[in-house]
Write a structure and sequence with these properties.
The chain is α+β, with helices and mostly antiparallel strands. It has helices spanning 2-29, 93-104, and strands at 48-69, 75-89, 115-126, 129-150, 154-175. A 5-stranded antiparallel β-sheet has the order 1-4-5-2-3, with helices on one face. β4 (129-150) and β5 form a beta hairpin.
């Protein structure tokens, strides 16, 4: 008798766990459901949440220099370059910024709130000839939606928010 009740208890627990995970999966696949329809997924009522939508990447040129080497020996050109760096968000503060960076899957190379230039020293090896030297920063524009969580657990007041941030520096040397 004890063995059969243990089997029934185990079977009941397994069935309840499998039905919980099935409802959780279906809620994740159906974006039309309210947060309250998803078990254990409601952020604090009265707070905000940000969802990621898309990203675009670009490069900005912060420095251009033309170098000429008339010798058959390589020369070097070193230059201190002021390169733009930024990590800002249009609305939502650090929490929205962090959500948009996580969604874009490209980390910022400066901390949230930074909007300035950093000076780096770049050295190019210049063989014989004319060369165009450039340097700059790589950018991400990550877009999402910021929602207010209203009772009982509904997403309301949708607002588009955009994070703009740098994630790397770059340089190039092109024969002219």
């Amino acid at each position: 008798m004890l063995k059969s009740s243990k089997i029934l208890l185990s079977l009941g627990l397994a069935l309840s766990l499998s039905s919980f995970s099935l409802s959780s999966v279906s809620a994740q696949k159906n974006p039309d459901l309210k947060i309250s329809d998803q078990p254990n997924a409601c952020p604090e009522v009265g707070s905000y949440t940000t969802s990621y939508r898309s990203k675009t990447t670009s490069s900005k040129t912060d420095f251009t220099h033309y170098a000429y080497n008339g010798s058959s020996s390589n020369d070097t050109v070193s230059h201190s370059v002021a390169i733009s760096h930024q990590a800002t968000v249009s609305i939502g503060g650090k929490a929205s910024f962090d959500a948009l960076v996580a969604g874009a899957e490209i980390s910022a190379n400066v901390g949230y709130g930074y909007n300035n230039t950093k000076t780096i020293t770049k050295t190019w090896s210049i063989p014989k000839g004319s060369w165009k030297l450039t340097a700059g920063s790589k950018w991400v524009k990550s877009t999402g939606t910021r929602y207010y969580i209203a009772p009982p657990c509904n997403l309301t007041n949708a607002q588009t928010t955009t994070a703009n941030y740098t994630y790397a520096t770059w340089s190039s040397k092109i024969a002219q």
